[in-house]
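Weekly structure sync, notes
Attendees: PL (lead), two postdocs, one rotation student
Agenda item 3: pending single-chain targets
PL asked that the sequence for the first pending target be pasted directly into the notes so everyone works from the same version. It is reproduced below exactly as submitted, 680 residues in total.
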Amino acid sequence: MQHPSTTSSAVDQYRELTIRGMILGALITVIFTASNVYLGLKVGLTFASSIPAAVISMAVLKCFRGSNILENNMVQTQASAAGTLSSIIFVLPGLLMIGYWQGFPFWQTTLICIAGGILGVIFTVPLRHVLVVNSDLPYPEGLAAAEILKAGDHNQPQESEDDTPQSGVKQIVTGGILSGIFSFLVSGLRVVSESASAWFKVGGAVFQVPMGFSLALLGAGWLVGITGGIAVLLGMFFSWGIAVPYFTSTTPMPENATMVDFAINLWVTKVRYIGAGAIAVAAIWTLITLFKPMLEGMKLSFQAFSSGSDTSQSQQRVNQDLSPKTMLLIILITLIILIATFYSFIASAPISFGMACALVACATIMAFIIGFLVAAASGYMAGLIGSSSSPISSIGIVSIVIISLVFMVIGQSSGIFAMAGGNQFMTALALFTASVVMAISTISNDNLQDLKTGHLIQATPWRQQVALIIGSIVGALVISPVLELLYNAYGFTGALPRSGMDATQALSAPQATLMTTIAKGIFSHNLEWTYIMAGVCLGIFLIVLDIVVKRLRPGLSIPPLAVGMGIYLPASVNMPIFIGTVLSYFCMRHIRKRHTDPKIQARELKATDRRGTLLAAGLIVGESIVGVVMAMIIVASIALGEGEAPLALNLHNWDTMSQVLGLVFFVSAIMILVRQILKK
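Predicted structure, written out during the meeting:
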């Protein structure tokens, strides 16, 4: 076990859950939640906010008397909800895509997020001992956050200027300014392109050499790592080097279609379903491999409840979780919120009161049971590979399939499908129920990471659990307004709020599109099973290949889920992610070559990784904040009748030049980042 440099008795005197800390944590939560909602809708990814929140907290609270490492930890614990609860957008926009919602009802959206978030915290409390205290799981982000908190503890001497919180904030700001300027040039002035592609034909086969210039995705790539980057590249190569060329060479091209439109249409209608099938089988495999820790977690949970609350009083501070009685009370309140929210969602449907109650009970039970089962799986995945790389989408896919199949049986036996709009209603209910499971899964994924950080610095677990509940509530209050704002400003692919909107500016919401496609296909019996099954076969092959590679070359892997995402996501999204992973790899390799002394090398690698992580977080936050601000400007402009692009310069014949400028800015930004990351 690693221990903080301060003595245990000194740490015991520290204040942890303070009013100023909760206020600061709430402010950071609001900013990072908005950023994550925007990024998730744009590319289907979110970022873990623990590390940048810890740095900001240390820089701000240092100005106040009595601040300490445990108080800073509580701020980052609370703010970390922003990077996780916002993943509910991987499902919820589907309700607009199927036409069931025309916006995001505030109370239904907020309460479903609050209920799912709180249950995510509670379900992982009994798992702390088996997956954190008595486990050798690495918890990479939890460990990194603990090291940053210890390095920035102003009560201890700093080894170098790079360890100070102010230095960390400067790195976040540097990344934020770079990506913010680029995002403004792209979505504000619209003089720079965010992507470029080279298309060519060999016989009848169409190929694409893609490029994307998003700095936020470059930062996400740094966090993903080279293993995930190579897997994404393999998925990209399968899509645009094998599958699309095959389909374009064997499918007659319509007379009025261009080569590019023809290839993209085949990718959307055929190849993407192969990616969905690969993701689905990878998700199931993930759950199978995690079956044992799930059973251990459930066993420990029952033991915790059966032991009663008498042991909690005698436990030391660093071992005190929320008591079983408190947890049962919170679960009861949360279940009441869930039941009320589900009933308000179902009440608008033209069904009998008895059937409405039955559907409410079914939805609540499924959300509760499936949520409890995935909590252990999500926590284990977070401990194994980190929250940012954890395949939460796999949980969503498996959940939406199970929930849709159950509701399909209920709908067929009760005659709901025979009524007008019955199919749409049951699809919407399945998506709404799956959103609760997604919230539970994402918070579970994050909670154990935070508890690992607390364990390493001797924080009080029950206070961390309270802090994360507060963060879930604050984040939930922000999600609905931000979703409404972004929807009205940009729209989503397949769901535009107004006719005549520029569809190229719409947020793709790739995860929500996938979940919605699966649910609609199950209820309408027209899912593209041929291509999905081809993806399933590909996923099985990738799983076997991954197992073989791991045995032949320990330390190497080909994550099947990442390959599936490489097939499913647009190439312009995948390319900057891959470049970010390569940037991370070569920076670390350069440090290893520069320093041969093991101690110096280890210290420099840690410092380089810290700088890279903070700069990457800044890149993501900067672009996301500009995106949200631009959404506000666009909505205000529309309300005033000034159009949807109030700041656009509308330059003529500028497409080629905008792509060149995008490439120049992208390369220049990489050079600046490398210089910042590798500075001595």
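Discussion points:
- The two ends are 30 Å apart (CA to CA).
- Residues 1-7, 308-314 have pLDDT under 50 and may be disordered.
Action: rotation student to compare against the earlier draft before next sync.
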